[in-house]
Specification:
The chain is mainly α. The protein has helices at 3-26, 59-95, 97-111, 115-126, 130-157, 160-167, 172-208, 220-227, 236-263, 265-270. The chain contains ten helices and no strands. The protein is elongated, with a radius of gyration of 22 Å.
Length: 271
């Protein structure tokens, strides 16, 4: 796929997801938690465009509200990871020595506890919920951003303009803030889109196993969990939330690929 086409499709899909989430804040076809047993498991129709679930709730309304839930949890989780991981990676690359070794060994330790295992531990202490899922995903993102920032910063710190800045007497943190971080912002932006997509998948997975968003709050993962009992009677109950997850993740991945092709000077030079 051509770089520009990838970027445009990614922007379009992400824009559609964001627009749906914003619309769900103000309007949905039906209240997403309204139970209507008389119309349970209804097929898609003019009254219910995507049908209803086993409790008679409108599937379209639940998917719209689930969009808001997934984006919010992923956004806050990425904010936690980037807000802590980027400064740690910058600190490690600037100081080097034992500081670098300590930060990287802490990152290795954090990698031993994936989001699902972290969510299980947090749930055991504080109970399941969207906040705990967000915290678990965010903690897993910290070492990811720390490693990416450190690696990108080390590759920039050997360039002539950084060496010249050091020669003028500017301190390590001043060089990092003024010269290094601005030159690796493109890499970090691409990594943010990737982790955002992974955050949506992680939130759906945690909700699927009952550790994420709790009922009656709609969630794509919980919708998939509820649909598995009726997979042969009403298979579209699993198709629609699965399609929503696919569109969101695909859009973010295409957006990340497009931004990488646009911001990476080495790739631009090849075209």
């Amino acid at each position: 796929m051509k770089p520009k086409l990838s970027l445009y499709i990614g922007v379009g899909l992400v824009g559609l997801i964001v627009a749906t989430a914003l619309l769900a804040l103000f309007w949905t076809p039906y209240p997403p938690t309204k139970i209507d047993i008389l119309h349970r498991l209804a097929r898609p129709s003019a009254a219910h465009w995507l049908g209803t679930d086993p409790f008679g709730r409108d599937v379209l309304s639940m998917i719209m509200v689930g969009t808001h839930t997934s984006l919010l949890v992923s956004l806050l989780a990425v904010s936690i990871g980037a807000g802590i991981g980027i400064p740690l990676g910058a600190l490690a690359s600037s100081c080097g020595g034992w500081v670098d070794a300590l930060v990287m060994r802490m990152a290795d330790l954090a990698f031993a506890f994936p989001a699902l295992l972290t969510a299980v531990m947090i749930t055991a202490l504080a109970g399941p919920g969207a906040t705990n899922a967000m915290l678990a995903i965010g903690l897993f993102n910290i070492p990811v951003f720390a490693r990416v920032t450190r690696g990108a910063a080390l590759s920039v710190q050997e360039r002539d303009f950084v060496v010249a800045a050091r020669a003028t007497g500017r301190g390590a943190f001043g060089v990092m803030a003024r010269h290094v971080l601005p030159n690796i912002s493109g890499i970090l932006l691409v990594q943010i889109t990737i982790q955002f997509a992974l955050g949506i998948l992680a939130e759906a997975g945690l909700s699927y196993v009952g550790l994420g968003t709790q009922p009656p709050q709609p969630s794509w993962g919980r919708m998939l969990n509820d649909a598995q009992t009726f997979i042969f009677r009403a298979p579209m109950l699993a198709v629609f939330p699965g399609l929503a997850i696919t569109v969101a993740v695909l859009g973010l991945n295409l957006l990340g690929d497009g931004l990488r092709d646009r911001l990476d000077p080495r790739l631009m030079a090849r075209r």
